[in-house]
Amino acid sequence: VQLVESGGGLVQPGGSLRLSCAASGFTFSSAYMRWYRQAPGKERELVAVISSAGDSTNYADSVKGRFTISRDNTKNTVALQMNSLKPGDTAVYYCNTVRVGLFYWGQGTQVTVSS
Questions:
Q1: What is the pLDDT of residue 75?
Q2: Parallel, antiparallel, or unpaired for β 102-105 and 77-82?
């Protein structure tokens, strides 16, 4: 299993970023996919999850209405569109899947929201 995130960077408050995760090594179309984030000194938290077919999503309360998770099962990618970003969204963002009870993570991509 390999997960490779991209798209992080520095953005001003109120701005937008789109993260992407390229997946390989497993049957992507049968896997739920998740985005987590971890801010300095804090525990890793679940941000968003999408079902294998992409017809069901769920979000942390802190990002509802601002973030959108989506997937393309033809390209084995999952994305996180982040709008109206706040300084509190600053964190390393990780793509995740669980296969046969094992958690798999990408290397993470840094998102910094600052003026």
A1: 98
A2: unpaired
